[in-house]
TrEMBL record:
SUPFAM superfamilies named in the record: Helical backbone' metal receptor
Designated name of the protein: Cobalamin-binding protein
Protein family: Belongs to the bacterial solute-binding protein 8 family.
Gene3D superfamilies (UniProt xref): Nitrogenase molybdenum iron protein domain
UniProt-listed InterPro entries: ABC_Transporter_SBP (IPR050902), Vit_B12_bind_prot (IPR054828)
Classification of source organism: Bacteria, Bacillati, Actinomycetota, Actinomycetes, Geodermatophilales
Length: 252
């Protein structure tokens, strides 16, 4: 019996054919790689464009009744994205749940390889192999960077996070050293460059940069910073372009 990323046994008598995803990044990965197996997703699952599957509400409040009606033989979830209560109740209802835990880029690659190979029992998707190759390139020294994720209050990406690991893999130093997602005034953050993504808070050219007079800022796609699906194939080049000031990273 396979064990998910938290070491929980997941009873799977056969490779799952009906999968519900409660994680937007994994929804995209499944829709691109095994579209015939994806039978449900959350309202927040917006990629790939034109995704047409039944919706089961949000990541934090999924409808267990709607999930049950889809008769899945697997639900995929994430430790940070989804509530332990929902995972437990789905399991109590007899629905296998595969929980991922992603704090680093290598976690993401290993977890997705296990999901596709050990669980779904399909070959490694081309986009995953391409992403691993792209991120294998050694980093060049980069600036001190801070990534804001909210304002009022200002919240930041800290240590022991997927985004923080991406910064390190780019050669950048995360200016925010507290763990996870601390609150700090912009004046307290000693960064040469501040990245302002469009999720969860939607920073814009007129909402965010004005808080950092005299410092460089860049509007970036939160999808490239926080997702661990097919977007990883282009994330490294896009992020390097943003850090180097070669233009905005495309928001898609």
């Amino acid at each position: 019996m396979p064990l998910d990323d938290l070491g929980h046994p997941v009873p799977l008598p056969r490779p799952p054919r009906r999968v519900v995803s409660l994680v937007p990044s994994l929804t995209e990965a499944l829709a691109v790689s095994v579209p015939d197996r994806l039978v449900g997703a959350t309202d927040w699952c917006t990629h790939p464009a034109g995704l047409d599957v039944p919706r089961v509400r949000g990541t934090k409040n999924p409808s267990r009744a709607a999930i049950g009606d889809l008769a899945p033989d697997l639900v995929v979830a994430n430790q940070e994205e989804n509530r332990e209560l929902d995972v437990r109740r789905l399991r109590e209802a007899g629905i296998p749940v595969w929980v991922t835990r992603i704090e680093t880029l290598d976690d993401a690659f290993a977890s997705m390889r296990r999901l596709f190979g050990d669980v779904l029992q399909v070959s490694t998707p081309d986009w995953l192999a391409d992403a691993e190759q792209a991120w294998a390139e050694p980093p060049e020294p980069g600036p001190r960077v801070a990534v804001a994720i909210w304002r009022d209050p200002w919240m930041w990406v800290g240590a022991r996070t997927f985004t923080g690991d991406l910064l390190a893999r780019l050669g950048c130093t995360n200016a925010v050293t507290a763990e996870r997602y601390p609150v700090a005034d912009p004046a307290e953050v000693d960064a040469e460059l501040v990245l302002l993504p469009d999720e969860p808070y939607v920073f814009t050219a007129h909402d965010g940069p004005e808080a950092f007079p005299g410092r460089a800022t860049a509007l970036v796609s939160g999808r490239q910073l926080t997702w661990y699906g097919p977007s990883l194939t282009t994330a490294r080049a896009d992020l390097l372009a943003a850090v180097a000031g070669q233009g905005r990273m495309p928001r898609s």
